[in-house]
Amino acid sequence: MEVARRTGVRHGTVERRLDRLDRIVGLPLTLRSRHTARLTTAGSRILVAGRRFFHQVDLAARTHIFGHGSEAVDAPEVLSLVSTEPLLDEVVEDAAASLDLLLSVRHEAPHQVAAQLAGYQVDAAYTWSLQSPRHSLERSVRTCEVLDDPLWVILPRDHPLAARREVSLADLRDETWVSETGPGSEILVTRVFQLAGLTAPTRLHITGASVARGILRRGDAIGLGSPTHPAVQDPSLVRRSLAERPRRTTSLLVDPTIVPRALAGRLAALIAEVQLRRFAEHHRDLLDEPWWAQWYAERTGADARRFGAGPDQGSVPGQAEGRKLDVDDLHLLQAVARHGSINRAAAVLSISQSALTRRIHRLEQSLGARLLLRSPRGTSLTGPTRQFLRQLALYEAEFREAALACRSVERPLAQGHWPIRRGVAAGARMSG
Predict the structure, then answer these.
(1) Where does the record place the HTH lysR-type domain (predicted)?
(2) CA quadruple 415, 417, 422, 428: dihedral sign
């Protein structure tokens, strides 16, 4: 009822459209009762995929028809983000207050973070890597470095080396270690030892980050901590610097078609600012050491400069800002391109030539650009329109793949279930 009121559509029409979406996808996308409605898991994923599709169509229009580049221009209202570490509440609150950005955050193991980003289930990911940030994703992402993240060792207070201010990895090789698995399925402790030119410890527990913290708290093993890693605070444990100064890099990976360049940089800087503030509050004893004090001073100075950056001057809104595009109109334009003229397309679509001409003219007015070249010899598409339609076909195929991925074992979709050109519900609209 609220959707009907806000959109000016009848309640029954909203119900029928939702039912039609369920039939098209082959899965229930909403759970509805008399007074409430909410999305199913499949519905949430379809919503993310659909929002990305509309962003891409808008971006393709800006890029190919208006020539404004391949970057996102408008920030999303809600950014779907997956993180390897529990993001602090301050990050979510500060993003809403200072960036006017609402974060929808989920937390996963590093390898699952990469899979969700690659599978277009989220718009951004906060994760870590050893040495320089690397990713092998097929989708296009922008990497914003958050912090170079020096590692320390966590020891029981009664450990023989706990009295030292600094210890070496070489002195700890025979200890029992606990380690998490990184984004590339590499073992953090093993890689740290290898990068230091040492053989990996033989007694090594490999587990998730939360279980690793529990083992450390019980004193059953030693492990690695860092400024961005959730702190293990317990009177029975001590933190000691490592002579080898191992470190990892934390990064924010974003979809550039969804997240504008300036917003991505400001969000990365905000995460760094909050992490540095927490480090200073909880690990002030490390700041008594010159090396850590210098590292902190350098990071806070660089972070302040980054966070003070102004808006992205390279992003220019399109001429058709505020336009609304009807997906069915785009399909009619595809039909004209496929059949070579309005006459032939109208015959195949079983609509009148005048009706098709009016729909194409409406689309041109919505975009504020000429899409067809008309002459006595016939109708042809402009070069930018052809590029736009090629991108549209790719985006529709990607959307169908995302929708098909939602099917469950109990409710498989029939072979050839999706229409050739109407994977998006008729009447769906996009705001620029």
Answers:
(1) 325-382
(2) negative
Task: Yes or no: say if 262 and 316 are a contact pair by the CB < 8 Å rule.
Answer: no
- Please name the CATH architecture into which domain 69-315 falls: 3-Layer(aba) Sandwich (3.40)
**Could you say which DSSP state residue 201 is in?**
P
Alpha helices in 340-407, H assignment, sequence order: 342-349, 353-367, 383-404
CA distances from 144 to 43, 126, 188, 262, 333 (A): 30, 10, 21, 11, 38
Euclidean distance between CA atoms 225 and 177, whole angstroms: 12
CATH architecture of 2-68+318-431: Orthogonal Bundle (1.10)
Domain ranges of the chain: 2-68+318-431, 69-315
CA atoms within 13 A on the CB side of 214: 7
| C-alpha–C-alpha distance, residues 411 and 374, integer Å | 48
| 93: Cβ contacts below 8 Å, ≥ 6 apart | none
Tokens of 181: 């698995």
Residue 122's contacts (CB-CB under 8 Å, 6 or more residues apart) are: 48, 80, 81, 82, 106, 116
pLDDT in tens, 176-213: 999 888 777 778 899 899 989 999 998 998 887 778 88
Which tokens sit at 368? Answer: 């504020």
Q: Using one digit for the tens of pLDDT, what is the confidence trace for 343-390? A: 888 899 888 988 888 888 888 877 767 788 777 766 778 878 888 888
Radius of gyration of the chain (CA): 27
| Whole-prediction pTM | 0.58
